[in-house]
């Protein structure tokens, strides 16, 4: 691989959305994460991507919920402090594997490539909008509760929204 790209954290974000009590959606993000990519050229085809997030940096704008998500009921941040993803771009899909709570499973992400530009400082930059979904129970996040009417409190399906901006090294 001839080109190395490091993440510009100030222009990147990692979000997830999950249904709460079937009727609404809760959005959360990870504030502490890193990523890099290696590619043969600026098309990124066949390029390799690596990503890691610190579980303790989860933020849903509700400190009590965040602490519950960090607990053994969900992410178990004490035993599994990071989640990671590695993948390879093929067409408009990054085919990869997510490791979460010590479990590694295939997760493919739709990749919308924003292209490559030269910034005012002479740096080559590239951008990606990535989307996908996973079943949280596949990774051992199996806490469940039911409402009085029998509906689930937290859905199994988690939607992922990741915006990454890279700077060529």
UniProtKB/TrEMBL annotation:
What SMART domains does the database record attribute to this sequence?
YceI
Listed SUPFAM superfamilies: YceI-like
Pfam families given in the database record: YceI (PF04264)
Q: Which Gene3D superfamilies does this UniProt record tie to the protein?
A: Lipid/polyisoprenoid-binding, YceI-like
Q: Which residues form the Lipid/polyisoprenoid-binding YceI-like domain?
A: 4-167
Name the domain of life.
Bacteria
Name this polypeptide is given: Polyisoprenoid-binding protein YceI
